[in-house]
Amino acid sequence: MASSAFQSFVERNQYILKQLGYMLAALLGFFLVVIFLLRIFTHHGEKRALPDYTGQFLDIAMEEAEDESFRMAVVDSIFIVGKNGGIILSQTPVAGSLVKRKRTIYVTVTKSKPDEIPSSRLPVLYGKSYDRKSRELQNGFELSSKIVDYQFDAGPEDYILAVLYNGDTIVSAKERKTDVMIEKGAVLEFVLSKSTGAQLSIPNMVCKSYSEALFLARSLNLNIKDDLQDGDNKFESFVHAQTPAFSPDSKIVMGDTILLTLKSAKPDFCVEEEEVQDNEENDE
User: Fold this and answer.
1) What digits encode the pLDDT tens for the residues 248-257?
2) What is the DSSP letter of 195?
3) What pLDDT score does 272 carry?
4) In CATH, what number does 199-270 get?
5) I want to staple 153 with a disulfide (CB 3.0 to 4.6 A). Which of 50, 193, 212, 255 is the partner?
6) Which fold has domain 116-194?
7) pLDDT band of 274, cuts 50, 70, 90
8) Residue 1: what pLDDT?
9) Could you read off the pLDDT of 111-120 as tens digits, one per residue?
10) How far apart are CA 11 and CA 17, in angstroms?
11) Is pLDDT above 90 for 23?
């Protein structure tokens, strides 16, 4: 009974049902065409392996990325000594990642202009060990160090007496400049201490025993070279002459050498001078 009623309904509404079928078929076809066109024109859902742009100049990499339908944005820049500016150091996502077209690639590039460090940020340098401070400057600030001079100082050797930047003294015993801007990667020049180099009046060693002359030379940080002309024990000898010769106005540099001419007997003129001095003391 129900089957007969349904058949009768279909027969009476056959035209309407056909039209509804055509409409549904048209809608389904339209929907499939839209999906197909979206895939063609937008590559919907398509993923590609991301190229490696690190090491390339930014302007070239941006052109290549645009050709591949990617976008590129700089998120950070870093100055590296010895590298040109505008070179890509890293990228996110990393090379080889599967990404959709129009994906933005975030990159870090090198700076053209170095960062600047105020001299106030530098550690205390005057009177400090050059070896230790040069390492600290390199590791902490990427600043190189160069020794340009030595000067005599009574303290330890190779300690910092002055620091120069671009020919200007920024650290010395008298001052420490805090407002100088120093480029990262720059070279600081150093003047260091040494135990020799001070000028002294030439001591008079003639008539002294070798032991006395040796003690005097050591106390003045001078070296001795001896020429023993007789005898076999210089410690029992006396100084007959010296080079350079004694002169009240002449100078010698600390660390230099004095040549002593030695003989076993004290010079006659020394004995005569001593006798005259003794006689004058007795008369008094």
Assistant:
1) 888 888 888 9
2) S
3) 62
4) 3.30.10.20
5) 193
6) Trypsin Inhibitor V; Chain A (3.30.10)
7) low
8) 52
9) 888 888 999 9
10) 10
11) no
CA dihedral 48→54→59→60, nearest 10 degrees, is -70
Question: How sure is the predictor about 276, in pLDDT bands with cuts at 50, 70 and 90?
Answer: very low
Q: Are 153 and 159 in contact (CB under 8 A)?
A: yes
> Which part of the chain is CATH 3.30.10.20?
47-110, 116-194, 199-270
Residue 20 φ/ψ, nearest 5 degrees? -60, -40
Cis? peptide before 93, omega within 30° of 0: yes
Contact 186, 143 (CB under 8 A): yes
CB 197 within 8 A of CB 254: yes
DSSP state of 243: E
Range 45-49, long-range pairs (CB < 8 A, 24+ positions): 45/100, 46/100, 46/101, 47/98, 47/99, 47/100, 48/98, 48/99, 48/100, 48/101, 49/96, 49/97, 49/98
Structure tokens at 41: 């024109």
> Which residues partner with 201 through β-bridges?
251
- In 123-167 the beta strands, taken as DSSP E runs, fall at 144-152, 160-165
Query: Which of 161, 145, 146 has its CA nearest to residue 194?
Result: 161
For residue 160, which amino acid is it? I
pTM of the model: 0.50
Q: Count Cβ atoms below 10 Å from residue 241 Cβ, excluding itself.
A: 15
Q: Phi and psi at residue 222, in whole multiples of 5°?
A: -115, 155
Distance CA 241, CA 193 (A): 33
The single-letter DSSP state of residue 44 is T
- Please give the Cα distance from 227 to 209 (Å, whole number): 13
How far apart (Å, rounded) are the C-alpha atoms in residues 143 and 115?
12
Angle at 71 between CA 66 and CA 75, to 5 degrees: 135
Alpha-carbon distance of 48 to 50, in angstroms, equals 6
